[in-house]
Amino acid sequence: MLKIYCNLLFKSFSKYIFRGFLCTAVLSLPMADLEAKNEIKNEVADLQTTQQSRKVSGVVLDTNNQPLVGATILQKGTSNGVITNLEGRFTIDLNGNAPVLEISYLGYVTETVKVGSRNTIKVILNEAAEQIDEVVVVGYGKSSVKRLTSAISTVKGDKLTNLPNTNLISSLEGRASGVFIQSAGGEPGALPTISIRGGGDPLYVIDGIPSSKAEFSVLSPSDIESFSILKDAAASAVYGARAGNGIVMVTTKKGSDGKVKITYNGSYAMSSPTESIDFLENWEVAEAWDRAAIYRGNKPSYMKLDNDGSLYWPVGRLDSIKNGIFNTTTGNTDWNELLFRKFAPSQTHNVSINGGNKTTHYYMSARYYTLGGIYNTNISKNDRLNVRMHVDHYFEGIGLRLDGDVSFSQNKVKYPPHGLYTIWTHVARLNALGRCFNVDGNPTGGQENPYVEIDPSAGYRKTDTRYSNYNLAVTWDVPKVKGLSVGALVRYNLYDNYGKDWYANESGVGPVWDWNNDPIDLGKPRLSEKVDRSNEITTEFRIDYNRTFAEAHTIGATAVFNSWQYDSNNLGASRKEYETGVIEQINGGPSSTAENSGTANEHGRMGLVGRVKYDYKMRYLLGFSFRYDGSDKFPKNKRWGFFPSIEAGWNVDKEPFMTPILEQGWLDGFKLRFSWGKIGLDNVDDFAYLAVYKKGHDFYEGNLWNSTLYEGGLVSQDLTWYTRNTINIGVDAEFFKRRLTLGFDYFYYRTTGYLASPQDQYTTPLGTGLPKIKTNSAHRRAGYELNMNWSDKIGRDFSYNVGFNLSQYDELWEKKYDEIEADLKNPLRRLTHQKSYFDLLYVSNGLYQNMDEILNNPRPTASSQLRAGDIAYKDMNGDGKIDSNDQVREGSPRFPHTTYGISLGASYKGFSLDVLFQGTGARDMLLESFNRKFNSNQIGLVGSNQFWYPGNNGEILYPRYTDNAQENGGNNNLNSTYWLLDASYFRLKNLKIGYDLKYSLLKKLDFLSQFEIYVSGNNLLTFSPTKKYHIDPEDGRDDDAMGQVGYPVQKIIQFGINLTF
Question: Which residues belong to any copy of the TonB-dependent receptor plug domain (predicted)?
Answer without folding.
Answer: 146-247
